[in-house]
Design brief:
21% strand, 9 helices, globular, PH-domain like
């Protein structure tokens, strides 16, 4: 679902990219002399051959630092009317790389749409005018990560023992379910369900261990930063609660984040709450 789109007038199309295209381009970078990047891979991902690099921006959301994507768009472009709360929430939930395409960037008769490598988040109507002439109103020069800009208050690491314990429980449940399904089906080899359940969980556990069992969240005086470019401002946190072996963070816009495989969940919650209250 996108922002209601009028039949006339310019639009800004916001596309979340599922792949890392290993390149960035903004109106500011081009004004300062950077060469236009090769957008062949991006055009293929969007199924839009012939993209005009002069009419689009491509960059990781993390480059905005503490600025929200919705605020950047409101400042750098000229949306026609206020951006709805629902659209703001969807924009601010984007992680990884994004593409911001003005209508002139897109070949005549084509339109951006969601696909395996990209998701169309919104098509925002803009006030008439030459938008590229006004950009950028916000400096998109990569900013230092929050933990580099202010002292680190605490680090929360996934606990390997908790990770393997959780997967042991998952394996036991999967084995029981596998056998139960085969028993209901009347299969005489019920025991094979246990093997299948154990194998499925074991493959998942070993495949994800290098990422999930070593994940780290960094707490500063104003924000929490996690793996995959996740960034949550303390002022935006609405709820903190434990969920199994994880600590769940719920923001005021409804976004949810999990600090997984935490050994001492109450201590992590208390530490974050203390930082939210202004205590170190």
């Amino acid at each position: 679902m996108t922002e209601p789109r009028s039949e006339t007038g310019p639009h800004l199309h916001v596309v979340a990219l599922n792949d890392d295209f290993a390149t960035s381009t903004t109106f500011l970078s081009r004004e300062t002399g950077d060469a236009a990047p090769d957008l062949t891979a991006l055009a293929r991902a969007l199924d839009l051959p012939g993209l005009d690099s002069r009419q689009l921006e491509l960059f990781p959301v993390a480059d905005l630092g503490d600025m929200r994507l919705s605020d950047y768009i409101a400042n750098a472009f000229a949306p026609k009317g206020p951006i709805s709360a629902d659209t703001r929430a969807r924009l601010n939930a984007i992680e990884g790389q994004i593409a911001l395409l003005l209508d002139p960037a897109i070949p005549t008769g084509a339109a951006p749409r969601s696909g395996p490598r990209a998701r169309l988040i919104a098509s925002l109507p803009l006030e008439p005018g030459d938008h590229t002439a006004d950009l950028p109103r916000a400096d998109l020069t990569p900013q230092p990560a929050p933990e580099d800009a202010e002292p680190v208050v605490a680090r929360f690491n996934a606990n390997r023992a908790t990770y393997w314990r959780d997967h042991a429980w998952l394996a036991a449940i999967a084995m029981a379910l596998g056998m139960a399904v085969l028993w209901v089906m009347g299969n005489p080899h019920v025991w094979t369900g246990a093997i299948g359940g154990l194998f499925a969980v074991a493959v998942r556990a070993f495949y994800l261990a290098s990422d999930e069992a070593t994940a780290e969240w960094v707490l500063t005086e104003t924000a929490l930063k996690g793996p995959g470019g996740r960034h949550v401002r303390l002022a935006d946190i609405d709820k903190l609660r434990t969920l199994g072996s994880a600590v769940q963070i719920v923001t005021r816009t409804g976004d949810k984040h999990l600090l997984k495989y935490v050994a001492d969940r109450p201590a992590v919650v208390a530490r974050i709450e203390r930082a939210m209250a202004g205590g170190r």
